[in-house]
Specification:
- The protein has 699 residues and is α/β, with parallel strands linked by helices.
- The longest helix has 33 residues.
- The radius of gyration is 32 Å and the shape is globular.
- Bound molecules: adenosine-5'-diphosphate (ADP) and magnesium ion (MG).
- Magnesium ion (MG) binds next to helix 13.
Length: 699
């Protein structure tokens, strides 16, 4: 790479140390290379000329050729303005100025063609205030670039008078600098296959597009390059992981697995469950650590897959552990799994924060001497005191509740790292999973057990509450149970608790004791009280559960058939979907009722409509990603996909796929990038890894 690109922008003509400092602080431009990769976020398109008759009330900036046929001054003193009548061969409009009136009225030329540019407003006809103006004659010869770049700016930059024109000027100076070399960074093979334009041309046209078409080609080329190098790193990391991280080989499928499969499963596994179990088996057979993400919608039967994987571990002489994010969930797993394994010589234990000291000591001891085969629990599993005899498999349920650090802690529980399976019902759109978890293998259960009736979802306004209560009463008559969930948003906690308690009181009035029993669960209760209330609902002693989102994760009460979500407009999509997943677990028809006020933002409307329209978690996740961007989705923060300079992980999905395919193809052929034809790629790759610049997420 030429030295110029690595030198400080302070040395560029007309920049100087003061501006360089602000540019670095505000937008991270330090050396010329950074400047070159600081791309305009939009362009003023001056390739197109509008006719006055074409103008619309919603038009953005337009460029028009026409003549001034008359000028008049209106108003007095401060309120005065200058108005010109401007015509072309299709119609007439007004140009208005509030400043520089004297000078303008002397210099504007009547009946002479002008090119004007500005944003039209409609007020008894179209007007443009303070248009940019140029005589057509001058315009024809002056115009160098038809599309003008607009760069991202900040308040500070503006205060220091560094406008997008300043930046454009700097880039221009850079391009004109003697000795500037813009090396190609992709291989000829790729460039030819995808008909990409050369790097130098792409950079030039991004800053100074000669046409829309060249701009589009340049944008594609640079987006591809950016995504390609991310994928190259992810795919390579994956390959290296596979080679280097030794793990335990579960070579045989033994008696426990087989007995369980043939005699204990109370239903037929779904095709998707079978497929995923096969994928896992293929993985753990090898003496290489498995790192697998298992995605499956709520109720898709992930627990069964988890259990069968644990049996594989036990068949090969290893212990297994399953970590859940809440005590309620850990307990449900413990009870469910113990029941399924009844009659088999497998010892399952439960360890939680609330486990009493004596029981805890026993568990610690039996874990170390290998008598416990499966340990289920909460965060308590991570304590240093918890030592396994021979841990071979760690499963983490509802992974989004745990941080990466916690995952890493499980690693240190044996000599070699155990196989890791993380399960989540919060689907990450496939596309995003690919770029964020390129280093993780992903399995998907995309099929629900048969006989499930999809939950019917409706959206009701607060004014229809009486009707809603009527339906609840009918469901309870049939012996069903009902959840009523209130939002709890940190910022408005006090108000939210008030809403919850008000709601609880009004429900208690409408559903009086002793005929109706109501549980209430929220975050300000003691854990024991929460568990107690939860337990009553699980056991069917109460018919209604009033709660905040604490019930969001994993809880399984098949008899509950109605989920009412209050102020549903305040919930995020994935949360709504999770909540809905609490019902529809039995054979009966279930309902989800989204309650909201009448005033809804566009986004809230989209969220509620999406919920009503579909039950498909992946579809919901895609909409969510569109609405919110990838920022809130787990893992994206660390992954660097948010620091992209030009590509957009959501919108440029197609390019991402192409980039990934190429990364895979190249690494398959040449894992260490040693072939002569990959010299450029290897060079660029090394630069990226060393400089850790925009792609510095290698962990
Ligand atoms: P999730 O994927 O949300 O964790 P669970 O593992 O809790 O789902 O399974 C939900 C329910 O479906 C459980 O009651 C489970 O016993 C049942 N189930 C799982 N697999 C099947 C299957 N293949 N056929 C019928 N029911 C199943
Ligand atoms: Mg589950």
């Amino acid at each position: 790479m030429s030295d110029i690109l690595q030198s400080s922008i302070a040395y560029l003509k007309g920049v100087g140390p003061a501006r360089a400092k602000v540019l670095e602080q505000e937008v991270g431009i330090k050396v010329c290379q950074d400047l070159l990769h600081f791309f305009p976020h939009r362009y003023i398109d001056k390739t197109r000329y509008y006719k006055i008759a074409e103008l619309q009330q919603s038009s953005a900036e337009v460029q028009i050729v026409g003549k001034i046929t008359g000028i008049r001054k209106i108003g007095q003193h401060r309120a005065s303005r200058l108005v010109a009548t401007f015509v072309d061969d299709t119609g007439k409009m007004e140009l208005v100025w509030f400043k520089g009136i004297k000078w303008l009225s002397e210099s504007l030329q009547l009946h002479t063609p002008y090119v004007i540019y500005g944003k039209p407003k409609y007020f008894k006809g179209f007007q443009i205030a303070h248009p940019e103006m140029e005589l057509l004659e001058a315009h024809k010869s002056s115009m160098q670039h038809l599309m003008q770049p607009v760069y991202p700016s900040t308040e500070k930059l503006q205060a220091k008078n560094i406008t997008h024109k300043t930046i454009s000027k700097m880039v221009q100076t850079l391009f004109l600098t003697q000795g500037l070399q813009l090396l190609e960074t992709l291989s000829e093979e790729i460039i030819e296959h995808l008909s990409l334009i050369p790097k130098g041309d792409a950079l030039l046209n991004l800053h100074f597009p000669k046409s829309q078409e060249l701009l589009a080609k340049s944008t594609y080329r640079m987006k591809f390059e950016e995504l390609f190098y991310i994928q190259l790193q992810l795919v390579r990391k994956n390959v290296i992981n596979k080679q280097k991280i030794k793990g335990y080989a579960f070579e045989q499928v033994g008696e426990h697995f087989t007995t369980f499969y043939n005699e204990h499963i109370p239903f037929e596994l779904t095709g998707a469950q079978k497929r995923v179990i096969k994928e896992i088996r293929t993985d753990v057979k090898n003496p290489v650590q498995m790192n697998r993400l298992l995605q499956g919608d709520v109720g898709s039967g992930k627990t069964m897959v988890a259990l069968m994987t644990m049996l594989l571990a036990i068949d090969n002489g290893y212990q297994a552990t399953l970590m859940a994010p809440t005590a309620i969930l850990a307990k449900q797993h413990y009870e469910g799994i113990s029941q399924l394994l009844e009659g088999m010589p497998i010892r399952v234990s439960l360890l939680m924060g609330s486990t009493k000291a004596k029981a805890r000591r026993e568990i610690h001891a039996d874990l170390e001497n290998g008598q416990i085969h499966i340990l289920i629990g909460t965060h308590a599993l991570l304590e240093d005191k918890v030592k396994f005899n021979n841990l071979g498999l760690a499963i983490i349920d509802e992974q989004h509740r745990f941080g990466v650090a916690q995952r890493a802690k499980l690693w240190r529980k044996n000599e070699l790292p155990p196989h890791i399976l993380v399960m989540t019902a919060t689907p990450i759109p496939r596309t995003l999973a690919m770029s964020v978890y390129g280093d993780l293998d992903v399995s998907v259960i995309d099929e629900l057990p048969p006989g499930r009736k999809p939950v019917k979802t409706v959206h009701k306004f607060d004014s229809q509450r009486l009707n809603v209560f009527h339906s609840i009463r009918q469901e309870i008559e049939k012996g069903r149970q009902v959840y009523i969930v209130y939002p709890l948003i940190q910022e408005s906690e006090a108000m939210d608790y008030k809403d919850l308690m008000d709601g609880y009181e009004s429900i208690s009035r409408d559903f009086p004791k002793p005929k109706y029993q109501i549980s209430i669960v929220h975050g300000q209760m003691k854990p024991e009280d929460k568990d107690y209330e939860m337990e009553r609902f699980v056991n069917g002693e109460t018919q209604i559960m009033v709660a905040t989102t604490v019930i969001e994760v994993g809880v399984n009460v098949p008899n509950a058939s109605v989920m009412i979500i209050e102020s549903a407009e305040r919930f995020g999509l994935s949360q709504l979907h999770q909540l809905r997943g609490r019902v529809g677990r039995g054979a009966e028809q279930s309902f989800c009722i989204l309650m909201s006020g009448v005033k809804l933002s566009e986004d809230s409307k989209t969220r509620l409509d999406t919920m009503v329209k579909t039950n498909d978690g992946f579809e919901i996740a895609e909409v969510d990603l569109r609405l919110r961007g990838p920022g809130d989705i787990m893992g994206t923060q660390q992954s660097g996909v948010l620091n992209l300079k030009i590509a957009d992980i959501v919108k440029d999905n197609q390019i991402l796929q192409v980039a990934r395919a190429w990364a895979q193809r190249i690494l398959k052929e040449d894992p260490d990038l040693q072939l002569p034809k990959h010299r450029m790629i290897n060079y660029a790759y090394q630069q990226l890894v060393q400089h850790k610049n925009i792609w510095n997420y290698i962990s």
